[in-house]
Every structure is written in C-alpha cells, then in structure tokens.
C-alpha cells in the first residue's frame, strides 16, 4: 500500500540547502535559504535571547499545556509591537490573536481560518511571491490567483499594474501582501502607496492578509510597521501573520503570531472562538519555549533595548553587504547597472539572473541561489563577497 508512493519533489528553497550540505567543494557559498548570517557566516544566538533563556530555565515551574491560542502576555506584547501600544485596535479590544509555530504556522492557521469561515473566498498573492505561500494555501484548499507586483524591466514595484488588478478583485476575497521586505523581490510600496492600497481594498470589501516576517529588517522596528498600520484604520478588518524567526534569530524555536482585527470588540470575541477551533484541530496548542523568550525580552527594558540594537546591527550589516555587492560586481566587470540592489530592502535581492545562470553558478562555482534569481544578501560576508561577485561575472560574461 505504501510502496506505491512516489518521492515528493525537492522543496524549491530548502531542497537547495540539502544539496549545498552534501556539496564537497570547500569554496561553496549558500545564498539560498533566508537565514541571517553574521560577518563570519554564522547565525548566532542573540545575547538577549541567551539571557532570557537562562532566566527562564531557572524560573520554570511546569511543562503543562499552554492555552489553545498560546500565552496571553506574549500575544499582548506582539500586538503592541505590530500596532503600537495604545492603538485603537488594541484599546477597542478588536483583536483576536494566537501564538503560532513560526510565521508559516500563522499562515497555515490563517488559511484554515479563511477556508472554514469565508466559504468561496479566493486568495490573491503577488507575482512573484515566497514559493511556500502557494504550498500552504493550496493545502488549505483555497483557490489562488495572482496580482502583478514586480516590473522586471526597471527593477521596481509595478505599482500601476498592481493597483489596477487590486481594483478588480471581487468583494469577499482575500489579498495577501508582504508587510515589508517583500520576498523575493526586496521591493515594497511607499507609505503613500500603502495608504492607497489599504483604501482600495477597504472600499472593495476585500480582506487584507499581511505576512510580516521581517519586521525591523527594512528601516526599523517601528518604521516597518507603517504598511500594516495603514490598514489598521477605524473599523477596518485585517489579518496579520508575524514571525520572530529572523528578527530574534529564533528560527528553530518556531515563534510567530496571527492577529485578526475585527470590526468591533463583539466581532473579535467571535473571531477568537473560531480561531481557537481551527488551532485545536490543527495542533491543539503551541510550543512554549520560543514565545516565552520573546515575551521576556519584550517585557524587560534592558533586554528589549539590547534586542533593538541587535536588529539595527543586522539591518546595517545587510545594507553594507548590498553596497559591497554592487561594488564587487562593478570590480568583477559585470556589465549593467546594479544600483537597484541598494534600493531593495530586507534579506533578499532579486538579481535578474536567468535559471540557466543560476544553474551555472551552482554547478561551476558552488554558489547556491534560488532558481528565481533571488540572492540572500544576508548570507554575503566580507570573505565570500568577492568570490560571489566574480562567479556572477563569469556566468553572465
Ligand atoms: N513569510 C515569508 C515571506 C518568509 O520569507 C518566511 C520565512 N522564509 C516566512 C513567512 C515564515 O517564517 P517562519 O520561519 O517563521 O515560518
């Protein structure tokens, strides 16, 4: 019975890391999966996380279950971070929320919630998007459609195309947007464009679903929430999936959250019960450790300050690597204007390399990037930068 089952295709991104790990070449560089690395190519534990974990170990009194939607204190701290403490959606008790196993867990819960409670809704995602988005939402049984996002001729947001498509989406559908640091393009709407997008969707009766996996990696922790807050107007409804994988470097601890903003406090109470029902049948209740760490850091003035400085340092290093990469490409004699790379935000850069060039990079130079041409800039270091730029020079030359 089981013998007839064929192997599944390799994952578009994680499959590359498996191939990377088994590559014997010593000069190999992995710029595929979205993991931050420091200048030594390591993904270290943040000091504030280590301190919080040590304190938690000493204080731990039980390993009994958490409530279905997770730790109340954590959920409140996350909502403060997302919406800003004292925001009307918080004061008005308009939020249903849950602690989830990572951002992916939040997306899956959101998808299941939509499938169960908004029958017939289609989910619209940007073209391109993170390849796991279609995987997750297909698994929920949601119909998917795309809206244009990227102008590859000019390496910028195709704002006109995007807005025109959003204006045609039927009422009752859901639009998935990347809260900041769009993956894979690194191109985000401006503040003014966010406001316009929010009002178009609101007028049409379309529900925004924001995937917010990189808070703090573009301009700052507060600054990066500007898009999300443009949607959080009086009486507006929206869903937000957030993740602490990147900005707390807590990848393997699986810490995220889903916030659903309802029109009223009464509506939010009903939404919370439906949210709990979805989680109960998916995984019953979330794991505690990562969320306890985040909660402790966010609630301690000293640890929080350290964390804000850590995120700023990660952001600065990525931006330095962006500039270094552009300079490196010029030095390697790669033809073309790559200055757009310094305009892109977050971990990723859409290099414009073709599928064949991406394959040559891997086969001939052991440089691993995603087939779409997406480069994880946060994987570049002062040591590997020149090698990568020269390898690109070789495959495009
Ligand atoms: N959304 C996007 C756009 C992402 O890039 C990622 C991580 N690669 C996630 C969600 C999920 O992150 P997590 O590891 O927390 O599940």
From TrEMBL:
Homodimer. GO terms for biological process: L-phenylalanine biosynthetic process from chorismate via phenylpyruvate. It comes from the Bacteria. The keyword Coiled coil does not apply. Belongs to the class-I pyridoxal-phosphate-dependent aminotransferase family. It comes from Adhaeretor mobilis. Keywords: Aminotransferase, Pyridoxal phosphate, Transferase. InterPro entries: Aminotransferase_I/II_large (IPR004839), Asp_trans (IPR000796), NHTrfase_class1_PyrdxlP-BS (IPR004838), PyrdxlP-dep_Trfase (IPR015424), PyrdxlP-dep_Trfase_major (IPR015421), PyrdxlP-dep_Trfase_small (IPR015422). The gene is aspC. PROSITE patterns: AA_TRANSFER_CLASS_1. GO terms for molecular function: identical protein binding; L-aspartate:2-oxoglutarate aminotransferase activity; L-tyrosine-2-oxoglutarate transaminase activity; pyridoxal phosphate binding. This is Aminotransferase. GO terms for cellular component: cytosol. CDD domains: AAT_like (cd00609). Residues 27-392 form the Aminotransferase class I/classII large domain. Its cofactor is pyridoxal 5'-phosphate. Its EC number is 2.6.1.-.
């Amino acid at each position: 019975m089981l013998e007839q089952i064929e192997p599944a295709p390799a994952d578009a991104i994680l499959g590359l890391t498996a191939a990377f790990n088994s590559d014997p070449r010593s000069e190999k560089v992995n710029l595929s999966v979205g993991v931050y690395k420091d200048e030594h190519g390591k993904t270290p534990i943040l000091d504030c996380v280590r301190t919080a974990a040590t304190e938690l170990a000493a204080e731990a009194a039980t390993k009994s279950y958490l409530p279905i939607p997770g730790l109340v204190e954590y959920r409140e701290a996350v909502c403060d971070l997302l919406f800003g403490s004292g925001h009307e959606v918080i004061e008005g008790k308009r939020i249903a929320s849950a602690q989830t196993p990572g951002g992916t867990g939040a997306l899956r819960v959101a998808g299941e919630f939509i499938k169960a409670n908004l029958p017939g809704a289609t989910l619209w995602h940007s073209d391109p998007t993170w390849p796991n988005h279609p995987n997750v939402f297909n698994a929920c049984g949601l119909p998917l459609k795309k809206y244009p996002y990227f102008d590859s001729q000019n390496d910028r947001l195709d704002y006109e195309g995007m807005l025109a498509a959003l204006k045609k989406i039927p009422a009752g559908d859901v639009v998935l947007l990347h809260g900041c640091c769009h993956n894979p393009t690194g191109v985000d709407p401006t503040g003014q464009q966010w406001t316009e997008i929010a009002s178009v969707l609101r007028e049409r009766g379309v529900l925004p679903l924001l995937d917010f996996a990189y808070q703090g990696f573009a301009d700052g922790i507060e600054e990066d929430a500007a898009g999300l807050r443009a949607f959080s107007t009086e009486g507006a409804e929206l869903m937000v999936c957030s993740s602490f994988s990147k900005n707390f470097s807590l990848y393997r601890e699986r810490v995220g959250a889903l916030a659903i903003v309802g029109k009223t406090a009464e509506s939010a109470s009903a939404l919370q019960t439906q949210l709990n029902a979805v989680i109960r049948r998916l995984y019953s209740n979330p794991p505690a450790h990562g969320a306890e760490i985040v909660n402790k850091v966010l609630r301690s003035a000293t640890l929080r300050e350290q964390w804000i400085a850590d995120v700023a340092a990660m952001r600065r290093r990525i931006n330095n690597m962006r500039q270094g990469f552009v300079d490196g490409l010029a030095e390697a004699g790669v033809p073309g204007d790559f200055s757009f790379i310094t305009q892109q935000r977050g971990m990723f850069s859409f290099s414009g390399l073709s599928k064949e060039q991406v394959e040559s990079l891997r086969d001939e130079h052991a440089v691993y990037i995603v087939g779409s041409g997406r480069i994880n800039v946060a994987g570049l270091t002062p040591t590997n930068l020149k090698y990568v730029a020269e390898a690109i020079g070789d495959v495009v030359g």
